[in-house]
Amino acid sequence: MNDGKEENKKTFDPFEPFRGIRDASFEAMSKAMIEAVNSESYAQATGALLDCYLTASAPFREALEKSMTQVLQQLSLPSRQEVTNLAVRFSNLEMRLDDMDAKLDRIANAVAAIAATRQPPPAEAPTRGRAPAARRR
Amino acid sequence: MPETAASAGPELAFEERLRRFNQVVTTKAPIAQTPKEVVWTLNKAQLYRYTPVVAAEKRHRLPLLLVFAIMNRPSILDLRKGHSFVEFMVDRGFDVYLLDWGVPGPEDKDLKFDDYALDYLPRAIRKVKEISASEEFSLLGWCIGAIITTIYAALFPNDGLRNLLLLTAPLDFSDRENLTFARWTDEKYFNVDKVIDAFGNMPGEMIDYGAKVLKPVENYVGNYCKLWDNLDDPAIVESWHSMNTWVTDYIPMAGAAYRQLIVDFYRKNLLIRNRLRIRNQLVNLSNIRANLLNVIAKGDHITPPCQSEALLSKVGSQDKLIHHVPGGHIGIMAGSSAHRTTWPYIEGWLGARSR
After folding, report:
1. Three-state secondary-structure class, residue B135
2. How many other CB atoms are found less than 10 A from the CB of residue B94?
3. Taking the mean position of all CA atoms in its chain, how far away is CA B125?
4. Which of B63, B197, B230, B264 is most buried as measured by Cβ atoms within 10 A of its Cβ?
């Protein structure tokens, strides 16, 4: 990939003579396949296949989950559900922190805005050493 | 004279070709290389700010936030150096941010469009405004990202959104004849609750299969033939490698969001009919008043043009435009001609409205 010299040399391709035939058949194949996957029967077949898989695997999934939960409980380890619940709580906390961050920003901006309006114009600026009027209050 | 693979005999040369093919197919190319920093995070989501390369006084005043789909990596927007939309916009003086939704874990299976549009996106936007010191901003939503940005634009019309760009936006699901996904996910054949109950989140491999099988010959055979035929062309190999790296990086979709996509969008078509409720708030598209550019890919088989065209008549924007681009769902932004067609058009439209 990174070796430019290596990339530029022409390598032998035994399939090259057949490219024309391949490309000519591609278009027809593509059209036929697109038509097939767009049909109601394809939708029905894939739906049935998926449903069949989910129905057949459900008892195994449930049994595995049950036994895994029991094993983890025996070993005093948290289950997948407990870890998931913890992660959800972390996300909620993070969101609360983000809200607080937003509120703090708003407060800081409001304070800065008030300070800016209370500052006297530059022409009437107090002499060096005197605190500005806003600060003296 | 050193012996090259080609002069060493056909067997060796063929072996060399096969080795190179295998290397490209099985390795990852460096993608998403434009310099950036993470400026905000929430759960798995991250907000990136791309390092500006244009002086602040010459930059566009409005920041641009990019929002991609929730079931693919957003690195497609920053594919590779010299062929990256992000890099293109940064070079032209935009302050670019990108919201990466991250990879949902089992704990995120209950995340819905409600959460993305009301909790994540507004918070990311707040951060964009804070960093850019601009009360106004532009939003670009692509694919499912366009659904989220449209919902946001309708629910927060006074939040400072000046420009809304939608790319291949699946918003209207009424033309069921032209929507293969609608046929596959029809309630007659597809039990979405059973799938989500079994998997929690919708597995990335299943989403990828759904997208690829729309054009099975092109995606499962033609794509690899293209690489094989062009192994001696470094430019084509590099482009193929980076695209394949992105395509094969599957991520799952949060279960509740997937269920909502199938039921509320594909089956009930609630959004375009102004009947979608997001946490009990009605999403009324006529509330959208931002300048709107709706980019539609003429050859899009994932989001056919009929899914995006109705939006213009529904929004309240004065400045609104549909732009049709030749190419497919991803090709319009990441294809070999995107830097000559789609990107300059977006830059021109947005630049004029970002002062």
Report:
1. coil
2. 23
3. 18
4. B63
Query: What is the C-alpha separation between B6 and B12, in angstroms, rounded?
Result: 8
The single-letter DSSP state of residue B62 is S
Nearest of B236, B129, B75, B225 to residue A20 by alpha carbon: B225
The percentage of residues in chain B with a pLDDT greater than 70, rounded to a whole number, is 97
Nearest to B121 by CA among B136, B100, B106: B100
Task: For residue B234, give the H/E element and its range.
Answer: helix B234-247
Round to whole Å and give the CA distance between B69 and B76.
11
Q: Which helix (H) or strand (E) segment is B63 a member of? A: strand B63-67
- Strand-strand pairing, B320-325 and B277-278: unpaired
User: Are the CB atoms for B294 and B320 separated by under 8 Å?
Assistant: yes
Q: Identify residue B201 by its one-letter amino acid code.
A: N
Q: pTM of the full predicted structure?
A: 0.88
pLDDT (tens digit per residue) in B138-191: 999 999 999 999 999 999 999 999 999 999 999 999 998 889 999 999 999 999
Alpha-carbon separation of residue B14 from B4, B10, B26 (angstroms): 12, 6, 18
Active site residue B110: no
CB B256 within 8 A of CB B307: no
- Chain B residues touching residue A22 (CB < 8 angstroms): 225
pLDDT at B3 exceeding the cut of 50: no
Helix, strand, coil shares of chain A as percentages rounded to 5? Answer: 80, 0, 20
Whole-angstrom distance, CA of residue B181 vs CA of residue A43: 9
| Residues 51-110 (A) with a CB less than 8 A from some CB of B | 51, 54, 57-58, 61, 80, 83-85, 87-88, 91, 94-95, 98, 102, 105
Q: Chain B contacts of A95, Cβ < 8 Å?
A: 42-43, 119, 123
Grouping H, G, I as helix, E, B as strand and the rest as coil, residue B237 is helix
Cα–Cα distance, A69 to A100 (Å, whole number) = 37
Report how far residue A25's alpha carbon sits from residue B111's, in angstroms, rounded to the nearest whole number: 45
CA distance linking residue B172 with residue B308, whole number of Å: 6
Spatial distance between the Cα atoms of B132 and B90, rounded to a whole number of angstroms: 14
List all residues of chain B from 268 to 327 with a beta carbon under 8 Å from chain A: none
Q: Which ipTM score applies to this complex?
A: 0.83
The answer to whether B243 touches B334, Cβ cutoff 8 Å, is yes
Is pLDDT at B117 greater than 80 in this prediction?
Answer: yes
